[in-house]
Write a structure and sequence with these properties.
Elements (H helix, E strand, L loop, with lengths): L1 H26 L1 E6 L4 E6 L4 E6 L9 H31 L9
Antiparallel strand pairs: 1-2, 2-3
Amino acid sequence: MKGMGDMMKQAQKLQAKMIKLQEELAEKTVETSAGGGMVKVVASGKQQIVSINIEKEVVDPEDVEMLQDLIMAAVNDALTKSQEMVSGEMGKLTGGLKIPGLM
């Protein structure tokens, strides 16, 4: 039973480290842009959009669809980069072991 107790202690330590890492990742951000930097999006490690910056030059009332496409592209890229950042950091902690619900 000693082996089982040691394994439980290790699991608890890993869980504490993961909680701390998730808190740290919530504070980290990634930034991306679309349209040559005309639309910039910042996302957090919690996969939440923190900010969107749109340059005046890209706002054309005659071409709203282009602006929508640029925003969507930048947001999707920011969320992908955020997920990659989280997966990379979690992978370092877990040694590459995939733990359902964490990544």
